[in-house]
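Help! Submission page says 'invalid entity' but I think these are all valid:
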Amino acid sequence: MLGNIKDKFMNYSFGLALACLTIFAVFKFNNFMDNYEIIILIGSGITFTWMGNLWPNFKKLFIYTFLLSFISIYLYKGNLEQIELNFFLKYFLSSQSAIMWMTALYPLSLITYWVYLFSRQDFYGNLATKLTWIATMMGFVGLLVRWYESYLISIDVGHIPVSNLYEVFVLFCLITSLLYLHYEEKLEIKKMGAFVLIIITAAVAFILWYTFEKGANEIQPLVPALQSYWMKIHVPANFIGYGAFAMAAMISVAYLLKDKGIMGNYLPELNVLDEMTYKAISIGFIFFTIATILGAVWAAEAWGGYWSWDPKETWALIVWLNYAAWLHLRLIKGLRGTVLAWWSLVGLAVTTFAFLGVNLFLSGLHSYGEL
Amino acid sequence: MRFAITMFSLLAVASVIGTVLKQNEPYNNYIIKFGQFWFDIFNQLGLYNVYQAFWFLLILIFLITSTSLCISRNTPKILKDYKNFQDRIREKSLLSFKHSYQFTTKKFNAKKIIEFLRSKNYKVKHKTSNEEGDLIVAKKGDLQKLGYIFTHLAIVVISIGGLLDGNLVFKVQELMGTKQIQLLDQELSKIPLAGRMSENNLSYRASILLSEGDTKTAAILRAKEGYLVQEIPFSITLKDFNIEHYSTGQPKSFKSDLLVRDKKTGESITKTISVNKPLTYKGVTIYQAAFEDGGSQLNFLVWDLNSSQPFFKMNSEVFKNNKLTFENKNLTLEFKDFRKFNILEIISDEEQKPKPTNVGPNFLYKVRNESGQAKEYQTYQFPMFVDGNYFFMSGTRDSPQEEFKYLKIPADNNLSLEGFMIFKSLLNNSQKVSNAISKGLNESAFATNEKKEAFQSGTQNIINSFITGGYNAVVETMNLNIPEQASSSDKEKAVETYINIIYLVGQQLVKSYKDDNQDKIIFPTDDSPRFIQDALTAYSDSFFYGVPLYLELKDYKHVQASGLQLTKSPGQIWVYLGSILLVMGIFCMIYIQEIRLWILVKKGSNSLIVSLATNRDRMDFDQYAIELKDNIKKMTNR
């Protein structure tokens, strides 16, 4: 009972605090936003309150991320040179350092998940979960501070950091791990971290290569086509889709292993894995559908047509058809098991091509991140 | 059903082809890529514009038809199901359900249970007069079934919207022979009716290119390898075009100030459009799509790179041709483009990392000779910092498929071309060259006059070869003079010596020039060999530059043109409505679970059966069924 009251109190104060912050931001920064962006800001405030109240750990993540970002911004004193001068910025809280911490912590939590998988000691399981949370927090701090940094470069350069391949790869790691952490808590399937973190670590490897080999971490100003409030909606929605599909594929890997009797004793039951794959794909599908539609609406505004058969658009359609078929087989035909598991793996290949391959091999309107 | 899935798969495959094979390129590119044989086959299949191909539209039409059939076949069943409570069910079948529970009841209060079920969002029907006993039938999540109708209807609506915005009208007109794609470049007003689409054309995505100050009354529709004229209900004037840049030089915004005038009423509006901020007028949306040069005026100095000829002045414009006679050849200079801003990755003086930098204007032109062959040139106005020094860069290539190969002319002390031009004049002055050789010899340690003479004539030969053909000519001459059996290391040594000799002569020429013109500081004042080496290399490379005619851009007046896109898209609203329907449908299908529930109290007994059924058995449903049953049990036992 007492706990209940405490929860309620927390929820209300969290909601109130977010409302205050949102209102403050609307009044303080309305010169920088058009009406749509103000609506998006208020919408985000409501969404985060709702998510935080539904999922206490998300609330925690939000609060810590927020505090750390604020400390970081405070330490900058409005000057980029502080990155080199201030110890905490240099090693912890500058955008680049925070993201580097993220890239270090995800592989670490992957290892810990595997230790947990074979040792079956809860200590390691809990540690792995904690590490994943902290990595996610550092990633979010990195992106938020990067957002601020972009404004320090120049007021007209400032923009939300979802505009190029480097930034969306970070976003991909964060969203995939958040989705996973959510299901881990809800379905009690801690062991799946050992699989889901594989794809996140692969993305981390890409980020590192992209940073050190190509210097992709530098903040670039926005090309005119990207200067739109739509970017704030279209890109994150898309990456919820990509992240969910990636997670589904990794769970399918576990399913196939278990089905073949490999590591059978260490993995959850087949029907649990099957159910989780389905859940991931359905949430991914909804967001991917919405993101693609919003992309079309944006394209109608920026490129003069809601559909131009641009390679990225076309591949989005193929990804969509692929998962539509998957869901169709499962929901209407009642198909289960290995076929769908293999299918979701193939789906990851198709998704990866849409996400990365199109940028690598095909040119078109969507050429925002080149290698 | 199976048919629809086949159609979807075909659609996916066709789409993949469309992304792998670059669409709507000039047909010549395809011929070069595939050869004539495959080009024709692919052309017949319509692979260069897959998404407008006849068979692609056919797939779409089949898709619409079969999905519509699916809907019309299943909808009555679904609607019937939607209304139906399934209250004629027998005890036996109830007991056969997976989630079926039987227990005894002390006090059966139907009203209370119905209330409870309603609070759980069930729709409830109570049938007391059932032959088997007292039956409560409840259900929820009916919307899930409607999800099926929504999603399938959405596909049909979106496809119809897409077809409305396709070019079906033109396709039919083309088949009937009333319209024809135009292939020749000519004035819009001269294009026959068969090449003009009326302003009532259902839908289009056409483009207009406007120079600053220009007015146009029709647009261009690109179609396959040609085009059509699209009539529009208004005229557009480009009053001004502006590009803003970030401090790093990258473009920040493209803005066109437009004046749009209704052809019928004469009513006009002015508006500035930019990327992401189009203007909609009379059902047509006008977008900022591209920009290019609109005929900038260019003033040049023309230099001859490998003779002592002095320069002359020349004026031209982008898209204009200049004829001139150069070294007894009749040449046509065709000016193609001028760009005021060019962002290149440049390694600057202080930093080691390449940084995007604005290197200033460049211009593109072709030099065509009498036989019609042309070489393309791209020349930058200002010297660029490359490999530690400033160079004037001018690229040349024989065809657009090639990369530019750059001639790098070193900039002099004043960052101008003059130093190099003086240097190449000195090289071409035989008197000065032979003086330089003698002077160099006098300073050297050759003892006898005979040896000196022999050396002088040898050196003169080398220099002459260099002057008439660069380092390559020197190597050729050497190969003639050196016995064939000489080892390659000997040859290398000889080449090194020759290069050194040429350098020493160059150095001597510059030194004498400096002595004669002490008031002018043009050549670098330090003793670094860089400038002379670079100048000799540039001179030598100029023999590969095609006609050794170098254009130095002195002055320009920038005139820009804005590329607009005009879209009429009546299908858009249908696509959006279909999309909303689609999202709703998917949501219903995935997140709404249909549950049916029966509670039967058998006649004359206190035995109660609770049965639950769902059409999609999920793991958490077991839990749900047990909880619900327990609640009902509690209620009937109190």
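Support: the input was valid. A stray whitespace character was the problem, and the output above is from the cleaned input. Chain B touches chain A through 49 residues (CB under 8 Å).
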